[in-house]
Please model this.
Amino acid sequence: MEINKNDNKYIYVLVGKNLKRIRKEHNLTQVQLADLISYNEGTIANIENNSYQTFSLEFLYIISKKLNISMKEFFENIDE
Model:
């Protein structure tokens, strides 16, 4: 799903791509990450695939605490 950076939905695409990158860097499957943060694995999959466009900062905060990363990592630009 290609979205222009000026589109309001771009932030969801960016966070989804970063979530996937971060998860893989920690050698976690979607199921393992979901279990770690007590969320449904479908939520992780939908966010990573840009089909889930309402999630809270608390969701990202929980992941950042469990993986010991900075919240800003979810908002880094990714070159494809």
